[in-house]
Amino acid sequence: MAVDSLEKPAVIPTTPPAPTVRKVKRRKRGVSGWVVLALVAGVGLLMLFPFWIAVINAFKPAPDYIANGPVSLPTELDFSALVDFWGGVDFNRKLLNSVVISGSVALIAVALSLLSAFAIGIGRIRGRVWILALFMLAFTIPQEALVYPLFVLTRDLGLYDTMTGVIVILAVLQSAFGTYMLSSVLGTFPPEVLEAARLDGASRFQVLRHVVLPLTRPTMAVLMTFFFIWTWNDFFLPLVLLPSADNQTVSVALGALSGQYTSDPTALAAASLAGILPALVFFLLFQRTLMRGVNLGAVK
């Protein structure tokens, strides 16, 4: 019995502890994050590929394009295609027309959207749901269904082949979307702020100017950026309503010249690059404002 009592207890082998659930989740989350990042990077490269092709071919000599193809880098920089296109189509005039039309449409459409949304979202007019549905219906109607009535209207009012007619039409059409977007923002506006302003004796215009406008400025900046880019890229209505060369926009000029330069791919690439760069520069300049407005709307 003494010997038995002195025997050492058996040692049970132990296995290393399994990783915790939190570590497994972190590992899975890290892998999925890298997969999403790789997919986004791939999509971004695919979207930038046409722009890259336009850049390298716009400054490539025609013999170099024929010998090495469209994907190869140029052996020397040749600005002749870009200079010939710029001077041949009076691109300075087309660029000025697009800037004037796009900027005017963006400003007028945002102003109309703010006034309409203030009446619907804060004024609480009757039938606001049906009015918003009407605005959305107007925004979703294709331009092909509106082109003939708009053509007759501008012709009878003496606005055909004028930039004023196109500015008014596009501003009204795009303000439908802006009204819907701003109405959803102003519909959730804190009533305590409005009531405090009214108790202080502020009129409707003062409430709009000193209370509503500062708080909705980021959203309006987002709308203005969208309206400018949409108008810049618009092709159909300017093509129909601006037939003369002096009033044409950049998109219409590029569309009219695409058939002429089909046999000269370097000139076509130069024309495409000249049409893309202004809108890209505008987007890069207002990118910070755009992201600030989007983030502020998400936080609200």
TrEMBL record:
Protein origin, superkingdom: Bacteria
InterPro entries xrefs: MetI-like, MetI-like_sf
Residues that span the membrane, as ranges: 31-55, 99-122, 129-151, 163-189, 210-232, 267-286
Keywords: Cell membrane, Membrane, Transmembrane, Transmembrane helix, Transport
Keyword Cell membrane on entry: yes
Pfam families, per database record: BPD_transp_1 (PF00528)
Signal peptide residue numbers: none
Similarity-based family: Belongs to the binding-protein-dependent transport system permease family.
Protein name as catalogued: Carbohydrate ABC transporter permease
